């Protein structure tokens, strides 16, 4: 198999989300990372609750290790994530009585956190997911814009997004700053992201890109992806695919399996071929493609009764048939 980073070198860096245990050359994961990937993202250890679980006490060890691994092996680092309603410590949102903090206190704490984290990795983390998943996820009419159950929104209103970008830019003016979200390709959500990013740009807020998480599936619509990329292109921002994975099931209630089979392989080859053809077609716009994991042994999608098999590498980190399908596709460009 041709290393992925060789295969895609004329198009975009290719990344993986990793744990600190995986980012170690003494493991098969570390070896696969070094061979195939040119970018890494911390799956969890750069999130607010990992870096500052206790107010004022930063725990850098795991994140530092990932950054060192990337530097030692010539890889880029995407930072994930600075501002999110989930995986954030309670003190960022609530006082000792469980009441939401005032806008002033919340913003001061956010500024402190973002400044500390971005400054520490200045020059090492080249792109940050500054705000994660701020838009409302599911309303069939597509009218509720912001995720109103986010404590950030409740404390500050939508301008917490603006502030987060300003703080991050101050701490590292050279870092590329992204808004990152999922389900972004759907007609009922993409216009919300478009409008929000347009608002930021119109207000002179330093935002450089949109992260499409890419938690897609074997039914994902090609035209939904293309339409979204065409729309976002008009914002004059970069696009990164930040969390790509394609589980093998047609629907949420399809019975599970613990073995990969030829039906899964067939579906997954078709889906990944479609996806990578689109990404190659838009490679002038797309500046990073990152999988949300390395091989099928470790993925947030697995359940005890059902494995998802979402990647190009199997549980032993061997390239799957879908890997060779993607390789053929790139070679035929
Ligand atoms: O750290 C604790 C550990 O101490 C404890 O023993 C263990 C028992 O369950 O849980 C550990 O925390 C887990 C954490 O991952 C670290 O492994 C959490 O329960 C678990 O919920 C958490 O899941 C992560 C999830 O984000 C949380 O929202 C997934 O690993 C991670 O892949 C996932 O990533 C998110 C992106 O950040 C944003 N986009 C969606 C994506 C998938 O959900």
Salient structural properties:
333 residues, alpha/beta, TIM Barrel, 11 helices, 8 strands, binds ligand G3I
> What's the Cα radius of gyration?
19 Å
pLDDT averaged over residues: 97
Strand content: 5-15%
| CATH architecture grouping | Alpha-Beta Barrel
Q: Write the H/E string, N to C.
A: HEHEHHEHEHHEHEHEHEH
Q: Give the cofactors and ligands.
A: ligand G3I
Report the CATH C-level class.
Answer: Alpha Beta
What is the topology, as strand order, of the major beta sheet? 1-2-3-4-5-6-7-8
Q: Which structural class best describes the helix and strand composition?
A: alpha/beta
**Major pleated sheet:** 8 strands, parallel, barrel
Describe the structure.
The chain has a single domain, classed as Alpha-Beta Barrel (TIM Barrel), CATH 3.20.20.80. Strand 7, helix 10 and strand 8 form a beta-alpha-beta unit. Helices cover 38% and strands 14% of the residues. The protein has 333 residues and is of the alpha/beta class. It has an eight-stranded parallel β-barrel, surrounded by four helices. Helix 10 runs parallel beside helix 11. It is built from eleven helices and eight strands. The radius of gyration is 19 Å and the shape is globular. The longest helix is centred in the C-terminal third of the chain and has 20 residues. The chain binds ligand G3I. The site of ligand G3I has 9 residues, from loops. It catalyses: Endohydrolysis of (1->4)-beta-D-xylosidic linkages in xylans. Keywords: Carbohydrate metabolism, Glycosidase, Hydrolase, Polysaccharide degradation, Signal. Its EC number is 3.2.1.8.
């Amino acid at each position: 198999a041709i290393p992925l980073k060789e295969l895609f070198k004329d198009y975009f860096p290719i990344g993986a989300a990793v744990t600190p245990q995986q980012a170690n050359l003494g493991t098969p994961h570390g070896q696969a990372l070094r061979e195939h990937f040119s970018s890494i993202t911390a799956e969890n250890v750069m999130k607010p609750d990992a870096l500052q679980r206790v107010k004022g006490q930063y725990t850098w060890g795991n994140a530092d290790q990932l950054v060192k691994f990337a530097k030692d092996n010539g890889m880029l680092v995407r930072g994930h994530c600075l501002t999110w309603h989930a995986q954030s410590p309670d003190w960022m949102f609530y006082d000792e009585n469980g009441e939401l903090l005032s806008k002033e206190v919340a913003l001061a704490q956010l500024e402190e956190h973002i400044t500390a984290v971005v400054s520490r990795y200045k020059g090492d983390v080249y792109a940050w997911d500054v705000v994660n998943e701020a838009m409302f996820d599911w309303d069939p009419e597509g009218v509720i814009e912001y995720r109103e159950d986010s404590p950030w929104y409740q404390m500050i209103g939508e301008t917490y997004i603006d502030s987060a970008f300003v703080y991050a830019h101050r701490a590292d003016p050279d870092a590329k700053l992204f808004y990152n979200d999922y389900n972004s390709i759907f007609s009922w959500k993409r216009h919300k992201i478009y409008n929000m990013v347009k608002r930021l740009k119109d207000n002179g807020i330093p935002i450089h890109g949109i992260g499409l998480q890419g938690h897609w599936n074997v039914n994902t619509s090609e035209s939904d992806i293309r339409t979204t990329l065409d729309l976002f292109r008009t914002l004059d921002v970069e696009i990164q695919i930040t969390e790509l994975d394609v589980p093998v099931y047609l629907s949420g209630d399809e019975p599970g399996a613990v073995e990969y089979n030829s039906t899964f392989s067939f579906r997954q080859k078709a889906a990944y071929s479609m996806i990578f053809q689109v990404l190659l077609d838009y490679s002038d716009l797309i500046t990073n493609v990152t999988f949300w994991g390395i091989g099928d042994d470790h993925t947030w999608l697995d359940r005890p009764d059902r494995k998802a098999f979402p990647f190009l590498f199997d549980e032993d980190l061997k390239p799957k048939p879908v890997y060779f399908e993607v390789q053929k596709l790139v070679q035929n460009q």
